[in-house]
Predict the structure of Pre-mRNA-splicing factor SYF1.
Amino acid sequence: MSQHELDIASSPGDVRPWIRYISSVKNDKTTARQKCILFERAVTALPRSYKLWKEYLDFRSGLCTGLNPIKHADEYDRVNALYEKSLVLLHKMPVIWLQYLQFLMLQPKVTKTRSVINEALRSLPVQQHPRVLKLALQFGTKVGGPTSVQIWKRYVLAYPDQKETMAQSLIKMGYHGEAAVVLIELLNASGDNYALWTELVDLIGESDKLTLEPPVEQIISSGIKRFPDQRGPLTVQLANFLVRNGDLESARDVFEDGITTANTVRDFTVVFDAYAEFEERIVTHLIENESPMADLRIAKLDHLLERRPFLISDVRLRREPYSVLEWQKRIALYEDPAETVAAYTEAVQSIPPAKADGKLSQLWISWAKFYAEDRETACEIYHKATLVPYKSVSELADVYLAWSQYESENDHWENAVKIIKQALESPNTHVSYHNSDLTAQDRIHKSVRLWSYYADLVESYGTFEETKQVYEKIMALDLLTPLFVVNYATLLEENDHFEEMFKVYEKGISLFEESAFEIWNLYLVKASPRLGLERLRDLFEDAISKFPTQKALYILYGKLEEDRGLVRNAMRVYSAMCDHVKTSETFKYYIGRTVENFGLAATRPVYDKALESLPNKDASELALDYAQMEEKLGEIDRARAIYGYGSQFSDPQIIKYYDAWHKFEVAHGTEDTFKDMLRIKRSIQAQFNTDIHYATTAAEVKKGTVQEFVKGETVQKGNIEPPVAQANEDEIELDI
């Protein structure tokens, strides 16, 4: 008897001798049958030993590796029986169950495997169920069919977060009804998950017959409420489901509801296009089958297409019910006069004036213009329009202006004037135009636009006195504007009321600082032929004191003095102009007037003053003119001196100045004077280059782009430029 047998005999209840015995025969030449006999003795002796059974089951399962489960079914069945025997006493061991299930999944025994899964779930504690269910799910995925559905249902009880995966798996297997139920459960739990809704709706759309609780119609209707921005696509899905189920009338009802309740043009377009396509398919089918209903369906399709612009208008009006523009677009769709009138009536009744988006007055005006040929009705509409409490006075003014213009165009100018006059009459003249607490009707008499139109109207159809009274009323209401000032002054001038005209100009100057200069200009032009010199001088001095830099005032003042024969006074005015407005243009004007009145020689003081006062660029230009003037007078030395003096203002890059000087020396100079010119030009060139260099360096330093100091040793030989020979500044090369 071997030592192992002796150990077992001496310790019959101890598992360790059996383990040692089994381990010793694993790799020796003992046959599989002998090993099996040993395992049988061991598990018979110790039937509750997990280790012995695990070793035995691993050994027997391993013997089946590579064997065809159909050809060697008997061998597999013996191992199955062995697993069953082990589980009699070891039914609480999850590893044995899992190993058994894995072994069964190798065999074509679907019913047996399902039975073992159920037994495992019944035997093991709940905490171990997920392990079994994961393996069961692999089995269900492999075999598919109702088995997979049932396993999935049990699996998601343990793993509820896997319901979406379950739905995907069921869809792949073709169990649309079960998948839809799972998706509905997910939606009820998760709320507004649009991805799940899309998946559910697509699933419904792909299924011809689908019975759900709640019904499909209720499900999609719920989706429309939850996702209003997807109303169009969801409506189309519902209609298509009904079409596939043969319920065409219900599908039409869904389409009709979709196009009449859509809140966006996008949703409307989606539903309408699907609706039209649906009707076209029906018409095509009826025509192909020569159905007598074809003509009726064609007529209904045509009517649907004709309704499209009106339905789109409905959509826009549902979104913007108070939009004046959208109502105008709606009205423009109608061709029948009765329908147009009904649309206008609906529009003005639907838009509360306080909430109007846009000018409500334009709607009333266009309605009145619709009745342009029926004066009585048009005026009635205009009258009603004046009673509407608009948001702004401007809108009410638009109505009165349109009404008055309508009457004027129809040669009823008395009514045209009367309409505006009545609008501008108010017992309370002290209200503020901008007081929004008052109605537009209470403030309309402060409308500048209406008063302006009224003044033009009275001036065209009334008398001078009536027009004057209008302007006086405007002034009394503190509604005067610069334009009113000009218009009123022009009216007074045309009727020879000059003193009153001057008073109007003076009032305008005192009221409007921003426009005072323009009013002064008009005032002085109009006053010059009509007032005495002393009074005019006072006016000009007053204007110039307020606008000392306005060149036009000096020119106008100087012209007055010249026209009155007081040329020297005019020159003093022009001199003052150049003191306050230092530009080349003012000096040139002064020079021009001096030449005309006193000759060329008299301009020397003016030129001198210009060269002292003007910036370099302008001084250079005037210096050139000055030198050429002296040349004309034969003053060659003076001209040369001026050229030299003006060179300090003139950059040599300005070719015009030095070219003129060059020609002058060629014509009148000597070799010495020419050399002097070149020396001066070179000196000025150096001066300008130095100025440019310093300006550039300063700019680079400010920007931080100047290169830092570099040691001499670091300069590479190839970067050293040859030295420049020192030039003699006094050496001049002549190129004559």
About this structure: The chain has a mean pLDDT of 82. The two ends are 142 Å apart (CA to CA).
